[in-house]
């Protein structure tokens, strides 16, 4: 199963001790319905080994997690035929993460569902102050990506 964190509700579910309706399981990941779903079919996909957030995972674990996200997401599309789907991962409390075990929400969407929007209203989002600052940030990101070793 991998590393398990004490007092982690998702580690409990992975261990079979927590309440969950499992819809998919493999050696490294688990997918289940949350107890308070946002929409019909809302599914959580978690790694079996505890990692507090996406940035705490190694490349291989992240690849396995997102492989399962694709498998379960395609199944949800096939079975429910939603008009769309949110694929959401929050990393950190300020990003609305409430359970500190990496997880990805698959939220099938349709007209009139109760999910609501996840983006600010038009015109209320962040604006870069000037082109030079935007260019400088883009250059710094490009340099950081180039320096990063391949997995």
From TrEMBL:
Motif placement: Histidine triad motif: 101-105
Biological process annotations from GO: nucleotide metabolic process
Active site: 103
Residue ranges annotated for the HIT domain, each copy included: 9-116
Coiled coil regions in record: none
Segment forming the signal sequence: none
GO molecular-function term, one example from the UniProt record: catalytic activity
Name of the protein this chain belongs to: HIT domain-containing protein
Source species of the chain: Streptomyces cyaneochromogenes
